[in-house]
Write a structure and sequence with these properties.
cell membrane, nucleotide-binding, EC 2.7.1.66, transferase, Helix Hairpins, 0% strand, 126 residues, phospholipid biosynthesis
Length: 126
């Protein structure tokens, strides 16, 4: 059995960053996630989030974006395997998309829990 030489660690990181870049540049939903994350960061700075609130927001950014990357990879593999409409291919694609949707909805709800009181406090202080 022939042993395969592993790529150096820096190349592994390069491949990972290339995957992130590809997803951001080609996937509309990933662009949306990035824009929303940027808006949340701006709002977080304005409303002076606590360390705990920042950690929650950053964790949610990571979760939603990581799931979007996994969803994109599942869609690519399914498309690579078959161009036909097959029930199992549909299940794979739909459930991966559903995972992203659930995470995004929960992130939005948690975002409201964090930001609505701060916005209300700001508005009542005017």
């Amino acid at each position: 059995m022939k042993k395969h030489k592993k790529d150096p660690l820096y190349k592994s990181f390069g491949y990972a960053f290339q995957g992130i870049y590809t997803c951001i540049s080609k996937e509309r939903n990933m662009k949306i996630h990035c824009c929303v994350s940027l808006l949340v960061v701006i709002a977080g700075i304005i409303f002076q989030l606590s360390v705990t609130e920042w950690c929650i927001c950053l964790t949610l950014f990571g979760l939603v974006m990581a799931l979007e990357l996994v969803n994109t990879s599942i869609e690519a593999v399914v498309d690579l395997v078959t161009e036909e409409r097959k029930p199992l291919a549909k299940i794979a694609k739909d459930t991966a998309a559903g995972a992203v949707l659930i995470a995004a909805i929960m992130a939005a709800i948690i975002g409201c829990v964090i930001f609505v009181p701060k916005v209300m406090q700001f508005l009542t202080g005017l």
